[in-house]
Amino acid sequence: MPELVEVESARSVIEKHGLGRRIVEVDDSDSFVCRPHRPGEIRDALVGGVLLNARRQGKSMWCEVRGGSSTISLGIHLGMSGKIVVADADGAEIDGGDYWEGRREVGDYSWARFTLGFEDGGRLMLVDPRRLGRVRLDPPVGELGPDAQTMTPDQFRAALSSGGSTPVKARLLDQHRIAGIGNLLADEALWRARLHPGTNVRDLSSAQVTKLLRSVRATIAAAFRGGGVHTLTIVPWRRVGGTCPRDHAPMTTGTVGGRTSWWCSVEQALPDR
Predict the structure, then answer these.
(1) Which pLDDT belongs to residue 91?
(2) Class of domain 145-264
């Protein structure tokens, strides 16, 4: 699913091409994507408003809309295949979000699950083939942990050490502790830090925690440079028969924290007890 990098791509598109535009119509008829709201509830809240800003915390994104004397928060979650598409009346468009192997044709909005129509004739859409995205008013962003891209060393240490015993990968994926790390970012960061994903957070030394934070930061930076988490180093080797791109040992797979995980069988082996 889209991770921090892909969500930032979508947020940036809204910030650059959607702000300051007045909303004159809203298609919120997809009751699954717009749950728990009834059809028309989001429309009634937003029509007449103006997009003020686009914000992100980890993998969560929301916009603030000025409507009269009040400000409304609109949460947009990309799901596993979502993109934000901003299309203008002249047919020009730009998109940001998840990476698609085969790009849809320009002007094909058959997968649009939610649409804002602007006064100038343009549109902002959540285009989502798998229909796993989510749009809601007043998203609970206050429940999220610090953003993985900007968290401080103290915040990172606190996120790993609080909450009892658990595999380090599970802790990295816990959005209430650290916001923004998904499955691919976690596997890459642990590979860079040479840590087995099942390592108990209580067994991590201070040096290992510092190295892991550096690896998380380097992984996020690499994903931004490459254009998404699909460009990370070990992604092509997360498969049966894959070998570690660093020492060429076989890659191993298993379920950690409820997610399919891959790691180097040699450099990331769990130490003997």
Answers:
(1) 84
(2) mainly alpha
Contacts of 92 (CB under 8 A, 6+ apart): none
Two tokens, residue 28? 């919120």
Catalytic residue among 59, 139, 169, 197: 59
Instruction: Give the torsion through C-alpha atoms of 128, 134, 139, 140, to 10 deg.
Output: -110
What pLDDT was estimated at residue 69? 75
Residue 106 binned pLDDT confidence (cut-offs 50, 70, 90): confident
Instruction: Read off the pTM.
Output: 0.92
- Of 2, 139, 146, 197, the catalytic one is 2
250 is catalytic: no
Locate the domains of the chain by residue range. Answer: 4-142, 145-264
Local structure of 65: helix, strand or coil: strand
3 counts as catalytic: yes
Residue 6 is among the residues annotated as catalytic for this protein: no
Helices and strands (DSSP H and E) totals, the chain: 6, 11
